[in-house]
Amino acid sequence: MARFFPSIAQLAAFVSSAVLLTVLLIIASSQFALGALIQMGVSIPFAVRLDTTLHDLANMWPLIAPIFGIGLLIAMIVAGFIARWVGILPDLVYALAGFAAVGVTIWALQALLQITAIAATRELDGVIVFCLVGGLTGYIYHRAAVRLSSTR
Predict the structure, then answer these.
(1) Mean pLDDT of 14-43
(2) 2 inside domain
(3) Per-residue CA distances from 83 to 4, 41, 75, 100 (Å)
(4) Residue 150: exposed, middle, or buried by beta-carbon count in 10 A (0-12, 13-18, 19+)?
(5) pLDDT band (50, 70, 90) for residue 1
(6) Residue 1, domain member (yes or no)
(7) Looking at the predicted structure, is the pLDDT value of residue 45 above 50?
(8) How many Cβ atoms are within 10 Å of 36's Cβ, its own excluded?
(9) N or C: which end of the chain has fewer CB within 10 A?
(10) What residues make up the domain containing 85?
(11) Does some domain include residue 42?
């Protein structure tokens, strides 16, 4: 019989991947916003880009982490069932689940709020970057969980 509660390795892998997801999404969001300003002709020195990104990291995580973290949690649980059911390419299953988690979360926010809550996701390129970050973190979650489980 399978365990109902996750192992310590799975918890550690999830927390680290959720933190990575949050950090990368905030960085991407900041850079898309700054890029839009640059396209309008505003000159933004590197120091300002760095300061803005650090400011966003310090202030946006309480909003971004729970919203996308819940989506990632649901996706990783479902991916676990699918990976066991399919039996092959679990890395791909988890990566696709992370990709889908971010995409569904963006779509749900737009449907719920009737606005694009995250400026970076107004255009398709921003949505794709966000979803790719989700895919990366889904892959990292699985690799970390496997590695941490094997060290015990």
Answers:
(1) 96
(2) no
(3) 17, 48, 12, 15
(4) exposed
(5) very low
(6) no
(7) yes
(8) 15
(9) N
(10) 8-150
(11) yes
Burial 64-103 (b: 16+ CB within 10 A, else e): bbebbbebbeebbeebbeebeeeeeebebbbbbbbbbbbb
Q: Quote the CA–CA distance of 86 and 6 in Å, as a whole number.
A: 20
SS3 8: helix
Is residue 71 within 8 A of residue 101, CB to CB? The reply is: yes
Place of tokens 């059911």: 85
Provide the whole-model pTM. Answer: 0.91
Q: Is residue 142 part of a domain?
A: yes
Sign of the CA dihedral 36, 117, 103, 30?
positive
- Number of domain units in the chain: 1
- Other Cβ atoms less than 10 A from the Cβ of 13: the count is 23
